[in-house]
Amino acid sequence: MKREIKGNVSWVGYVDWELQKFHGDDYSIMNGSSQNAYLIEEEKTVLIDTVWTPHGNEFVNNLREEIGLDKIDVIVMNHGEADHSGALPELMREIPDTPIYCTANAVKSLEGQYGKNGWNFKTVKTGDSVDIGNGKKLIFVEMKMLHWPDSMATYLTGDNVLFSNDAFGQHFAAGGLFNDTADRCLLEKEAMKYYANILNPFSSFVTRKLDEINSLGLPIDIIAPSHGVIWREDPLSIVGKYAEWADEYQEDQVTVIYDTMWEGTAAIAHEIAGAVSRISPGTEVKVFNCSKADKNEIMTEVFKSKAVAVGSPTVGNDILTSVSSTVHFMKSLKFQNKKAAAFGCYGWSGESVKILKEKLTDAGFRVVDESIRSMWKPNDEELASAESLAKALLS
Questions:
Q1: Can you give the pLDDT at residue 195?
Q2: In angstroms, rounded to a whole number, what is the distance separating the alpha carbons of residues 30 and 19?
Q3: Contact residues for 191 (Cβ-Cβ < 8 A; gap 6+)
Q4: Is 110 exposed, middle or buried (0-12, 13-18, 19+ CB in 10 A)?
Q5: Selected catalytic residue, list 41, 42, 166, 370
Q6: Which residues of the chain fall short of a pLDDT of 70?
Q7: Which run of H or E residues covers position 191?
Q8: Which among 65, 160, 207, 356 has most CB atoms closer than 10 A?
Q9: Is 216 exposed, middle or buried (0-12, 13-18, 19+ CB in 10 A)?
Q10: Number of C-alpha atoms within 13 angstroms, CB side, residue 126?
């Protein structure tokens, strides 16, 4: 079903209320999501992106009923990932000669996923444009590594709409489509989670791309991303957030992450959290057992934090796999300018703290000297040392 965005621009995507995970099992979805595709009906009719394969048949049938597939003059593929391009093969079986505007890398992506079908690709780069009639044109802006090498955004003159692809999106199902109709607290939470877990590794690219978009001097009235809400009320507010988040973002927060076998490491974790609160009452403190908490929620809190403390008991001369995978995930997200400390209990060999320090250093954290390493279970003196560890994280 078409839903008007502005002028002759409509949303023709799919709101997926039941979606619970994304990127395999690597991203948790708590509040649904959407795959946003857009239709522009000027002298030429333009389709911007499609939807994921499971909804492809419904998507193509809806287009057929709304406008007739033979009315589509131009297809723009801002990104080749399957959640954007999944319905493209079915659509192209119906209108095989329709030109597809995309980056050269997107051609590689689309042919790699769907085979070489002889589609009519028109490769574009930043600054290229196509006239769609009525005095309007599409201007293309490459968005390399936000978050794939093939990504780009498309700007519609006249209506001043930026179809921003994965930038400025969220995995968030919003029935009203627009940011001014959504729960604002939930929207900001989901936007930050999306940035922290998907785009943070590419923050340097974000900063450069925001500067480039600003240098183009394009007026922006609406930002229409590929997932989540469409930004029509103060759309540049999310651009400002991205500039802030890309700049080694942190709040006055410390996050404690641990797993435990017989509750000794858990006791240290909570003692560290208590010490941080006693020393700095204004500092937000979050504590997560990483074998129980959602990993993407944890990473969002790490993103917000100026420091983390990570704990594991020693098992098999190593750390628990739950903690190891958590630190590995933190490394992949390339957090910047954050401190870290290590702690843990042991019964015999006691390597966990040393291993954690090495892994946290390798993940890009500035690891403090202070740590807590307790045999069997922490005694009063060891628990008291949480004060010095907390001070080191806060200093």
A1: 97
A2: 8
A3: 168, 169, 170, 172, 228, 238, 241
A4: buried
A5: 166
A6: none
A7: helix 184-194
A8: 356
A9: exposed
A10: 10
Selected catalytic residue, list 38, 55, 79, 370:
79
In sequence order, what are the residues at sequence separation of 6 or more whose Cβ sits closer than 8 angstroms to the Cβ of residue 251?
A: 284, 304, 305, 306
Annotated catalytic residue within 83, 190, 370, 382: 83
270 classed as catalytic:
no
List the helix and strand counts (H, then E) for the chain: 13, 23
Q: Which one of 81, 150, 190, 351 is the catalytic residue?
A: 81
The one catalytic residue among 27, 101, 194, 195: 194
All domains in the chain, ordered by first residue: 3-245 (3.60.15.10), 253-394 (3.40.50.360)
Beta bridge partners of 223: 162, 231
Query: What is the C-alpha separation between 214 and 203, in angstroms, rounded?
Result: 17
Instruction: List the beta bridge partners of residue 222.
Output: 161
Q: Which residues of 119-128 are buried (b: 16+ CB within 10 A; e: fewer)?
A: bebeebebeb
Q: Is 194 a catalytic residue?
A: yes
Q: What is the pLDDT of residue 148?
A: 83
Contacts of residue 130, Cβ cutoff 8 Å, sequence gap at least 6: 74, 101, 122, 137, 138
Q: Has 171 been annotated as catalytic? A: no
Mapped onto helix, strand or coil, the DSSP state of residue 167 is: coil
227 part of the active site: yes
Catalytic: which of 38, 147, 249, 301? 147
Q: Assess contact for 78 and 152: CB atoms under 8 A.
A: yes
Which of 55, 84, 171, 227 is the catalytic position?
227
Alpha carbons within 13 angstroms on the beta-carbon side of residue 182 total 24
Concatenated DSSP letters for 322-379?
HHHHHHHHHHHHT--S-EEEEEEEESSS--HHHHHHHHHHHTT-EEEEEEEEEESS--
- Unique residue bearing structure tokens 């949480």: 386
pLDDT tens-digit map of 230-254 = 999 999 999 999 999 999 999 999 9
Q: What is the pLDDT of residues 113-136, one digit of tens each?
A: 999 999 999 999 999 999 999 999
79 is catalytic: yes
